[in-house]
Structure formats: structure tokens, C-alpha cells
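> Could you send the Acyl-CoA Delta(11) desaturase-like Protein prediction when you get a chance?

Sure thing. Input:
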Amino acid sequence: MFLRTITSKFYSDQIVWRNVFLLLILHIISLQGWYFVLTTAKWPTLIYGFIFGALTGQGITVGAHRLWAHRCYKAKLPLRIFLCFLQTVTLQNPLYEWVRDHRVHHKYTDTNADPHNATRGFFFSHMGWLLVRKHPDVIAKGKTLDLSDLQEDPVVMFQKKYYKIIAPVLSLVIPALIPWYFFGEDLYVSWVTTCVLRYVITLHSTWAVNSVAHIWGTKPYDKNIKPTENIAVAIVAYGEGWHNYHHVFPWDYKAAELGNYRTNLSTAFIDFMAKIGWAYDLKSVSPEMLRKRKMRTGDCDY
Ligand code: ST9
Ligand code: ZN
Ligand code: ZN
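Output:
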């Protein structure tokens, strides 16, 4: 305990050069992806890349975030397998790790125990936190979390076991073969646009929730915390930009009070899954509870 307090006090960032190098290369190649998008890439490749990217993003929002991290609803096995597949394609760490980091983010928001502590500025909360070793407080506080629900979920544990083999293939190899085989696309153009560029766009959309939506926007539900309501982030992150609401009511499956499906595509996805019976026990905040909370801690004058 004493040793941990000392290391935590004198902690200074230890850069992980492997991650710096990989993310740099990825971003350089993605620039070529934008060039191909504007010039030689075929329309079917672009349409496929867009739809595929949008669908796999739901693996993060509907799957990793609203189902596994917050248990906002329950999902039958076929939906859990489908969402796990989509989340694997996004190459954003195994669900087990993603959820562990996200739960510690909610429990210790914007402190040293938050992996992407936004009090350390835009860059750190956006992507800098992936370029350095974690603060000792993240690991110490993270060890106190209850992750038994994840350990009991065979889908999560299967993905964890085989992640290093399955994820790179599903994310950075197979998607490129589709336009090449079906649309006669050049294989390199296909790889740069549907693998690299898609990955980079999904990463920044996700990271914006931790950075932009912890810095800019309104706070109608709790003015005493950093997370904000930000419509731009809500659009690019399928409804996850209503972040002041989400930090106050993390268990709400809509992750928002207002807004429509256009600014919350993930709610549309869950509602559809509920209609076909694959999602159930959807949790949501009552209007009365919401009204009281807004009056008590919100930033609006009534
Ligand atoms: C990526 C993830 O980008 C993005 C997540 C963002 C979440 C946003 C959420 C917002 C809401 C949802 C929005 C969705 C929007 C979607 C839009 C879609 C269009 N608790 O991590 P290690 C322990 S990934 C407890 O290596 P280091 C544990 O024992 C991108 N314990 O720490 C662990 O061992 P093990 C690709 C913890 O060495 C051990 O420590 N990936 C916790 O400091 C070591 O863990 C990358 O770029 C905890 N929380 O390294 C880099 N954490 O795992 C991938 C750790 O065996 N990451 N422990 O149990 C790394 O390289 C490293 O993690 C590191 C830190 C260098 C960052
Ligand atoms: Zn947050
Ligand atoms: Zn959350």
C-alpha cells in the first residue's frame, strides 16, 4: 500500500514507443486512404466500406459499451455472438479489457485512476493515454472492480483467449478481400480504404467521446462533472455524445434523454433487436427521476 502510494505520487509517463510507431504508421497510411477515396477507389468499395464501418461501430456502442460495460439491457446468445464479432473487427482491445477500462473510467472519472483522465488535456484523453504506460492508480483501482459477469460470459472469455489471432485477421485482412473479389477493386486500394482508413475513422469517433465530450458542450444533468452533451460526437459515435446524461445515468440503454435515431443510431439498433426478441429487459430513466435530477444538479435555470 505504502509502495503504491509512493509510485503513484512520483509517477511520470513512460512512453510506449511501439504504440507511437504503430499509430503513426496507421495515420500516415490512412492519409493515402483519403486520397484513394477522392480519386481511384470504386463506388461499390466506398459504399461497402461505409456500411461495414458503421455496422462494426455498433459492436462498440451497442455491444462493448451499452451491453457489456453497463448492462443496460440483456441480449440472447446470437446477438452476443454477433456484437462480439463486430467489436472484434474494430480492433479496440478484447471486450474484457475494454470493459474493465471503461468501468474504471466511470467509477473514477477524470482522476488519475481514469485511464483517459480528461483533466490531463485534450491529447491525453483522446489518444495519448494509449501511448504511455497506465498510471498505477488505474491498475490499483481497477483491481477492485467486479468483473465476474464478464468471467461468466463464454462469448467474452472465448474472444479474450483467441483475440490476438482472430482480431487482426478479421479487422485488417478479410474486409479488404471483399471489394477485391466481388467488385474487381485493386487489392492495395481496398486494404487502405476498407481496413486502414475505416479503422482510423472508428478510432477517432470513439476517442472523441473521451476527449471532445469531456471538454466542450452543455451539462443539463450535472454541472459539477466534466462530461458534456455534444451533438457532433453523438452523430459520429452513434449516440454516445450525450455524455453528461450518460455519466449521470450510465445504465440507460438509450444513453440519452432526447434526440432521435439520427443522433442515436445505437438506440435504433437496440430497439430493433428488442422487436425481434434478441434484446430484452431494456433499462431507462423515468421522467420523474430525470426532472428531479435536472432541477437539483443541472446547468439550466428553471
Ligand atoms: C482503443 C480503445 O482505442 C478505445 C476505448 C475507448 C473507450 C471509449 C468509451 C466511450 C463510450 C463509448 C463510445 C463508443 C463510440 C463508438 C463509435 C464508433 C464509430 N483494471 O493495459 P496494460 C492491469 S484500443 C484492472 O497492458 P500498461 C492488468 O493486470 C486501440 N487492471 O497496461 C493488466 O494485465 P492483463 C488499439 C488493469 O502496461 C496489466 O495491468 N490499441 C487495468 O500500462 C497490464 O495492462 C492500442 O492502441 C484496469 N483498468 O500498458 C494500445 N488496466 O490485461 C493497446 C490494466 O493481462 N494498449 N490492468 O489483465 C496498450 O498497448 C496498453 O494497454 C498501454 C498501457 C500501453 C496503453
Ligand atoms: Zn466519459
Ligand atoms: Zn459508459
